[in-house]
Amino acid sequence: MVAAVTIALTGATGFVGARMLDLALAAGHSVRALTRRPQSPRDGVIWIDGALDTPAALAELVEGVDAVIHVAGVINAPDAAGFEAGNVIGTGAMLAAAEAAGTRRFVHVSSLAAREPDLSCYGASKARSEALVAASPLSTAIVRPPAVYGPGDRETLELFKLAARGIVVLPPSGKLSLIHVDDLARLLLALATGNTSGLIEPDDGRPSAWTHREFGQALGRAVGKTVRILSVPRLLMALAARADRLVRGANARLTPDRAAYFCHPDWAVSIDRAVPAALWRPQIDTQQGLAETALWYRAAGWL
User: Which residues have CB under 8 Å from 34's CB, separation 6+?
Assistant: First the structure.
């Protein structure tokens, strides 16, 4: 059994971070969590008011902690500067605070998009954040999650909504890896309390990942529909992204930056960067996880 530790957590109010917080508390750990907005009191949690651009808050966040789990980041921004501020400068600020406090361990949540930094501003910013972490004198681990799904996720919600209508719109032919948010959170916790270092690409354990068509069919089964799968050409995807930006502005889900990396044909994790089996294994079958996510969406009135 792992001894209880104190963890500094960024992104604790987001999709992955909130689940990370739940699992850390369930395991008996204490958490110091960064927040921009007032939060309800919670046993085992000390909420620190501030953000990645407030050094005093970051110093308070890492005070006396054993490990940092840096989940916070920018996945949608109007320009490269927005990604730079959230993903590069923000990560640098967290590292500086952790180093100054003498923190033992730093776990950084990156993205598979960092593997292809020339495709998107997002991927480029994540690659630069990885370089900062790799150069740190701290004991570090960098996690590149593939597509993350699960209850509460708004990023994949649109796909579930389409599937419920009998259609799934996906990028051109390719393959991708997936991971349930609970499996990802368990991995981050295992890394924070262990010593495994380096670059890690976890997934659901499916051999050869998922083709886009297989994933579309799995979404259909999850919502109980036979779906028609449409593979959208790269040019049309780019036009759709521009249209979404015109209609929804800053709230657009499909931006030109996202369209660029969505259309890459291979977002499968690398077997050379797999998680050591002694540390972690995925526990959630993806088809079952998708079905349970659909049920959650319906219960919440989202689907």
Answer: 8, 9, 10, 11, 12, 48, 50, 51, 52, 57, 58, 61, 72
Q: What CA dihedral angle connects 95, 96, 98 and 101, to 10 degrees?
A: 170
Q: Is the pLDDT of residue 237 over 90?
A: no
Percent of the chain, pLDDT > 90?
Answer: 80
Q: At what angle do helices 121-134 and 90-101 cross, to 10 degrees?
A: 20
Q: Is 26 helix (H, G, I), strand (E, B) or coil?
A: helix
Where does the pLDDT of residue 235 fall: very low under 50, low under 70, confident under 90, or very high at 90 and above? very low
d(CA 215, CA 2): 36
With a CB cutoff of 8 Å and minimum separation 6, the contacts of 68 are: 7, 8, 9, 10, 62, 94, 98, 103, 105, 106, 107, 192
Domain boundaries, given as residue ranges, for the chain: 6-153+178-205+268-283
pLDDT band at 172 (very low <50, low <70, confident <90, very high): confident
CATH homologous superfamily for 6-153+178-205+268-283? NAD(P)-binding Rossmann-like Domain (3.40.50.720)
**Helix, coil or strand: residue 196:** coil
